[in-house]
Predict the structure.
Amino acid sequence: MEVDATSFPHHLLGMLIAISEADFVSFDLEYSGIPNRMPDKASRQGGGKQTLEDRYTETKTGAERYQILQVGITCTKFSYIANKYVLKPYNVNLSPLLEDRLDFERDVTFQTGAIAFLMNNGFQMELPFTKGVQYLSREEAEKAKQHAYDRADKKNIVADLQLKDEDVDSLDFVRRTREAIVKFQDSNSRSLEITTHTGLKEKPRVAVISRFEKRLVHQLVRAEFPDLVSIAKADCIIIKDFDPIREADNAARQKRYARERITKATGFRWIFEALAQGDISPIDPFYFAHNPNGMVIAADIDNLKDRFDRAAMRLKDQQPVLVGHNMFTDLVYLYQCFVGKLPDTLQEFCVEIHELFPKIVDTKYLATFAGGDLNASPTLEEIANGIEMQKLPNMGKSAGVGIAFSLLINS
C-alpha cells in the first residue's frame, strides 16, 4: 500500500494496529546517499580488512550526511483461522523538509551514485518532496519544544540593535514610536498599534511594518517601558499594559499550540516509536479522522480512541521481531533519522540499538552463517532462488522465525 503525506493521517491508526498485532515486521530503506570509504582516513596498514569499528565510523558519517527517502515495511501476523501468515505491506516516501515555524533547519545532501541507482530502478526523486511524509527525530522534537517554550516564556531575546547617527530613518521611527507610547500611557486606550507610519500625518490604506522595525519596537518597550508588553502581529505591533495573569495564559496557550504542532510534525516517527516500543500517547485520535484524500470526516472519535488505546496497550506489552537484510546500515540510519545524534563508538551504538530493538533477525546472516562466509553479499532474490526447491519442515507457530524467513525471501 502506497502511503503519502495526504493519506498518512488516515492510514496511521491502521499501521499502528498492524504493528501491534504483528509477530514480526520486515523493513527496507532507500537513502539519498550511502556510506563510502572516508577520503580523509589513512589507508589501513598492510591492506587489512576493515574492522567493525571502522565500518561503524564510516556508516555513522554517511547517516549524518544523508537522509532516508523511502521506507517499506511489512507487518506479518500468523492467522490461526487461516493457518498461515497474513502480510500487510506499506510503502512510504519520507520528506526531509521541515515546517518553517519549528525555528531550525535540516541540511539535505545527495550522492550522485545513489541517486542514479534509484532513478535507474524507477524511483521518482520528486516524490519525497511533493508527497513525502514529514518527520522529526526525538532530538529534533525536543529542540523544537525548547525553542517554542523559550519563546513563550520570552527567554529567547535577541541581541539589541545598535543604531548609528547616520541611521536617520530608523532613529526617527524609534522617536515617533516612543512618543506614541508615552501618549498611550496617558490615555484610556486599552492598546496601541505601531506601524511604519506611526506618528506621521498621512496614514496608509494598509498598515505595514518591517521585521527590522518590529525588532526596534520590542527592544524599545523592553528597555524603557517595563510596565508594557509588545505583541507582534503580521502588519503591526500591539502595545498593551502588562497583565501577569493574561501573560501566563498566553504562554500556556502558546505552549499547548506548540505541543500540538510538534505532535503533528512528528509524522512518520510515530511508526518508529511503535516498532521500538516507544511512547505514542501524545497522538490525538482526532488526527485519524481523515479520509485518504486528507479531508476531515464525520468519524466516531470514541471508536477511534478505543482502537488506538488497544493498539497502544498491545505495543506496551509486546514488541514485534524486526527483520531486515544486511541491516547494519539500516539500523544506523534509523537511529540517526528518528532518535538523534549517533553514539561515538560501536559498543555504545550496540547497547542503544538493542535497547530499542531487542529482537532482530538479519536474513543475510541467516543465509550466510552456515556457509561460513559472512563477507558474502547475496541479494534476497539470490537467496530465494537458492532455496526455492527446498522442502520446508512442518512447523507450528513456535518456529515462526524460520517460516518468517522463508516468507520474507519468497515475497
